[in-house]
Amino acid sequence: MGSSSSFAVGLILALKALRGESIDRCELARLAIALEQERLGDTVGSQDQIAAAYGGLNTIDFATDGSFSVTPLAIQPSVRSGLERSLMLFYTGLCRSASKVAADVVANIPDRTLELHRMRVLVDEAEQCLIQGDTDGFGALMDTTWRLKRRLSPLVSNSNIDRIYDRAKSAGAVGGKLLGAGTSGFMLFYVPPDRQEDVCDELRELLHVPFRLEDTGATLLTGLPHEKNSRLSMPELASLTV
Of 11-25, 98-112, 159-173, where does mean pLDDT reach its minimum? Predict the structure, then answer.
């Protein structure tokens, strides 16, 4: 779910605050990307850091020079709430190295240009679905995108993930995807509310994680220690951001 990128964004924001410095969301995302990709040398993308810094539902456009632009989606509140009600998150109980999976995807890029271009077009189609209020269409595009993503690398999915996905679909999910680089972690499904009980029953061995969409991104919390020369413990430092 972009946990490493969220941690990087939160850490940078917290350290900036401790030094009495402010930072805008664009620079916060840029520094987090540089930390993971350049300083740590991890093979990771750039979208997770931006999502964590900005929050909300956005279209993110990347330029070849590494710059990016973030455009909030102009959708009706009723559409947003309908989308939120129809999304279900499940934890598979497995973990993996996202960098290793992403590295294999990157190595396969020269042979997967058709899939990548199609996935890029689907971004515009998904945006139009939400603008027009067609959340079911958005759910169907999740299915199309996931099937394309599976073709980017054999490490993206496996037989266990495929079985979970097929079971969810047979129980009523319109579409879905494995979040993150692949192999394991959290799975997100679009499920009409009247079929969600069936999906929960079918995937009862997995942890269902209720969640809500948010708009603030990385945010400093109030209620911190104010004593002079006080030192923050690591748990207290972690609580600086959400």
Answer: 98-112
- DSSP letter at 40 equals S
- Asked if residue 59 lies in contact with residue 20, where contact means CB atoms within 8 angstroms, the answer is no
Distance CA 121, CA 8 (A): 30
What is residue 228's predicted lDDT score, i.e. its pLDDT? 43
Sequence-distant (6+) residues with CB within 8 A of 137 are: 129
DSSP state of 241: B
By CB atoms closer than 10 A (0-12, 13-18, 19+), residue 49 is buried
Determine the pLDDT at residue 240. 43
Among 180, 182, 188, residue whose Cα is nearest residue 154? 182
Provide the whole-model pTM. Answer: 0.84
Q: How far is CA 204 from the centre of its chain?
A: 23
SS3 content of the chain, % helix, strand, coil (to 5): 50, 10, 35
Bridge-based pairing of strands 58-62 and 68-72 is antiparallel
